[in-house]
Design a protein that fits this description.
heterodimer; A: 271 residues; mainly alpha; 86% helix; B: Rossmann fold; 2 domains; 6-stranded mixed sheet; 4-stranded antiparallel sheet; 11 helices; ABC_MlaE_roteobac (chain A); transmembrane (chain A); phospholipid transporter activity (chain A)
């Protein structure tokens, strides 16, 4: 009996692992299909008299990017100041607090600016995208688009994907600048280092590679946020409850994907 | 009424041996239907009869397990994407909840197909949208958001959007759902007016007997995925099948439930219901 129940537990365990793996592969496949379909409409759409509307892209850029400037700016400044505070506190042990700029500059440009921007955009726009598309699905608005001969991927997904791909790196660059500026202000107050000296040192230690590392990651985060948001919206089942679940799922998946991708990117880039 | 000058109008929708499964559950079981030009065909049936699935097949939104659907002579599931896209311009659909885009005004909703499929200038599109709004008695509502409209107005605005490209075939999914009898009757009048004035072929899916009898040239009755009956309203009334007569009588009984009985069914207690303040 005990052996049987052990077998049963093992069976259930591997069954669950198998199902989760299949489901993960299925999800990756859907992402691939969505990217392929988006590229198809971007390239082939104009030839079929169904171009991606620039107005829709700009409208999404406003929503994803411009309206997020305030909160991302505040968060980036807070992170920059926090890095300076912690850096000075740690380096003081070795009497090397003058080298705080190196740590702050690398951390902000290579890690924290893309990460905090990605997470905030995921929480703000990824979830909104899921909720909007999910609601459109349960209200049959997606069906309405299709019977009107308007492909939902071209009309809704491609503008969000392009906007996210453009705006997340732009916001990340803004985060880098604001984070470093906030750090510079704290270092100026704490150590008396002038802003000019802080930024001179920053420019000295950073290379173009560091900047492309941060912005490249941000572009990948942008694609991930839009894809995950869109797919969760398209896969909504049921009514309002389904939309709620999709929104939550979207935020969790986006943040997880961003953190894991960040780690993999750092690993590959520093190998 | 169907065009009296043409005794044999062409078939615009031809459905043959349509079968649909959801997993192991059979939804449609070899359905054959012809809809001819200029007629109003009402597809009727209770919940779970397969009528909504059938409509999704007709609108080329869902691929059936087997069978063929020809719309305007073209097999919709064998058409390349470009041809299907061209075919869809000739179809209009009014969904159950209207399916207006909540982020756009009523006018923008109506102009959307024009904006996407034509190269008309904005002013022409606005004039056309206003004309269609007048057809559905919503003139002057173009700047409102869908959330500012009542249920009946949303459906009429959805009709205006569905006819903006002057489609040859118009589909209605449960046009009376969620509407009071007066508004529902007004919508039925609008459907008749569209057929008479614009010569469209109209296919309506509904479970409302009264509405079906008012607008239908022909009725198709679906029951558990099978076609029980296809014919005129009179033929339906006169049909000897006990199953169809039971269906009609059951509908009549449902329609005749009075307020007290409705309250009793809600509360499950007649005495208690009668003692409640009204």
């Amino acid at each position: 009996m005990a052996e049987g129940s052990n077998q049963s537990v093992a069976y259930r365990f591997f069954d669950k692992i198998g199902r989760m793996s299949t489901s993960a592969l299925e999800e990756m496949g859907r992402h691939g299909v969505m990217i392929a379909e988006s590229l198809y409409w971007l390239i082939i759409g104009p030839r079929m008299n169904q171009p991606v509307r620039l107005g829709a892209v700009f409208s999404e850029m406003m929503e994803i990017g411009v309206r997020a400037i305030g909160i991302i700016g505040i968060m980036a400044a807070a992170i920059g100041a926090m890095l300076a505070i912690q850096g000075i506190y740690s380096l003081k042990i070795f009497g090397a607090e003058g080298h705080v700029v190196v740590g702050v500059a690398f951390s902000m440009v290579r890690e924290f600016a893309p990460l905090i921007t990605g997470i905030l955009v995921a929480g703000r726009s990824g979830s909104a995208l899921s909720a909007r598309l999910g609601t459109m699905k349960i209200n049959q608005e997606l069906d309405a688009l299709e019977v009107m001969g308007i492909n939902p991927v071209r009309f809704l997904v491609v503008p969000s994907l392009l906007a996210s791909l453009i705006m997340v790196p732009v916001l990340t660059f803004m985060s880098m600048v604001l984070g470093l500026y906030a750090a510079a202000l704290y270092v100026n107050a704490a150590l008396g280092m002038s802003l000019a000296a802080f930024f001179d040192q920053t420019v000295d230690v950073l290379s173009v590679d560091d900047l492309t590392h941060g912005l490249g990651k941000a572009a990948i985060f942008g694609i991930l946020i839009a894809l995950i948001g869109v797919l969760n919206g398209f896969l909504v089942k049921g009514g309002a409850e389904g939309v709620g679940k999709a929104t939550t799922r979207s935020v969790v998946q986006c943040i997880s994907a961003i953190v894991v991708t960040d780690m993999l990117f750092a690993l590959v880039a520093t190998f | 009424m169907t065009d009296q000058t043409d005794p044999n109008p062409p078939t615009v929708i031809e459905v043959r041996d349509l079968v649909t499964h959801y997993g192991t559950r059979q939804i449609l079981n070899g359905v054959d239907v012809d809809i001819v030009e200029g007629e109003i065909m009402v597809i009727m049936g209770g919940s779970g009869s397969g009528k909504s699935t059938f409509l999704r097949h007709l609108m080329a939104l869902q691929r059936p397990t087997s069978g063929t659907i020809k719309i305007l002579g073209q097999d919709v599931w064998r058409l390349p994407q470009k041809k299907l896209f061209e075919l869809r311009k000739k179809l209009g659909v009014t969904f159950q909840g209207g399916a207006l885009f909540s982020s756009m005004t009523v006018g923008e909703n109506i102009m959307l197909p024009l904006y996407e499929h034509t190269k008309l200038d904005r002013m022409t599109m606005e004039i056309m949208a206003r004309m269609k709004l007048e057809v559905v008695d919503l003139a002057g509502f173009e700047d409102l958001m869908p959330s500012e409209l009542s249920g009946g107005m949303i459906k009429r605005a959805a009709v205006a959007r569905a006819v903006i490209m002057d489609p040859r075939i118009l589909f209605f999914d449960e046009p009376s759902a969620g509407l009071d009898p007066v508004v529902s009757s007004q919508l039925d009048d609008l459907i008749l007016r569209l057929r008479d004035a614009m010569g469209m072929t109209i296919c309506v899916v509904t479970h409302e007997l009264e509405s079906a009898f008012k607008i239908a040239d022909r009725i198709t009755v679906l029951d558990r995925g099978n076609i029980l009956f296809v014919g005129t309203v009179q033929e339906l009334h006169d049909h000897p099948s006990e199953r169809i007569q039971n269906l009609l009588n059951r509908r009549s009984e449902e329609a005749e439930i009075d307020a007290d009985e409705y309250l009793r069914r809600l509360t499950g207690d007649k005495e208690e219901a009668e003692g409640m303040p009204r």
